[in-house]
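#data-curation
PF: Archiving a pair of folding outputs for the training set. Convention for this channel: one message per protein, sequence first, structure tokens after, nothing in between. First:
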Amino acid sequence: MTTMKRATFGKLLGSLALLLAGGGMPAWGRSGWDELNLPHGVTNVSNRIYALHMMAFWVCVGIAVVVFGVMIWSLIFHRKARGAVPDVSLTHSTKVEVVWTTVPVLILVGMAVPAARLLVRINNNTDSQVSIRVTGFQWGWRYQYLGTNVSLISKLSQSSNLARQLHSGLGPSSVRHYLLSVDHPLVVPVGEKVRLLITSVDVIHSWWVPDLGVKRDAIPGYINQASFTIAADRPGTYRGQCTELCGRDHAYMPIVVHAVSPAAFEAWLKQQSAVQSEASAGAPAQPTSRS
């Protein structure tokens, strides 16, 4: 075996070892296999999505092992150099045809049933404790907490916005969570079901936070729904992005969700309501036009 072949073989073995050693929880900033695999997430639905994904993955691995194993075995033990002679009398086997039709059907049904159940669960947006209208625009998000006067505009943070400029003198590595930080994050409570009503005012956007297991298109003139419940023991900050190419600054409209305790959420909501009510009361009256 030449040096080049040994190096290539070593790389293949290393990649296989990395693949088989995977299964950790990916997150922003992690490396290796974690960047390639789906995250476990912090919601029940996201964990079910991960489990379904891994089931399908290992089913595909098992199929690949069987198929390529038979191919490799045939190439080695039935090659011409061993004096193998093709059997010209071979036509077909009804039993084999039944087997190779029945087995894939059973595999597909076995994968389709849990997938269908999960889809029903994902689209169950009833019995929510908090409802938020999410409106995408070029290039940011507006969040309106229904039933309150609280709303906020969430756009790329000033630090990331400055670092992305060509002659700013700042590099991406100098900014924490570069292009994944915002000026006003979406604040939600843990342990409570949050329903999102997602739309857009201009072009199609897509609201995606992988740790929540949520990805929904924001379409002008149409409202999509999504919901999630962050586990009570998983408060924290979770990041995502717009995943629908929506124009020049598509890459610069991240999503940040800040999950807090229900008590902290209620306190934040009251504080924001008071601040925004005061700001509205102090705003100058808009001139009215005369007909």
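PF: Second:
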Amino acid sequence: MTIHAIKTSFKQLCEIMDRFGNDHCDAIRQCVQLMADAMHTGGKVLIMGNGGSAADAQHFAAELVGRFLMERKALPAVALTTDTSILTAVGNDYGFDEIFKRQVEALAVAGDVVIGISTSGMSNNVFHALTTANEIGCKTIGLLGRDGGNIAAVVDIELTVPEQHTPFIQTVHGAVLHLLCDMLEKELFTPS
């Protein structure tokens, strides 16, 4: 790889980030408000994804339960990607498409926020879980890529990175999750 190719890659990523930021400010603000409202009333955040998106889900939950930038009380968040016994039992008994749906049925209550991450927007297990979350009365958010896929149509708020290159989509998702952590901490713990 040449120096020119490296610089070009960073330039493309910066352009994608800039476009996404300009186009999604209000939607990001709405996501923070949904999570803050849920937590003010005793609710929680459930988050899921596959592969790299599973890692993002776990990272986001860890930042909320632990801390991001502010010393504060722990926030209620669960990554639905971490319990290997549940994932393998449900996957074996019901199929991979049910691994998140069954956990949403078990853990979510009306008023919770359920977040699905899918770089394609087409992850069936995320789609089924979000559909179930809507039926329960949860608020739903999709961090998506490409054209948002079938998931974009079933969430309350969709944050879609309109790109084809999965690594760029994942990088934007990571930045969005960090921004959500920062804004949520400020919303919940900055004196008014």
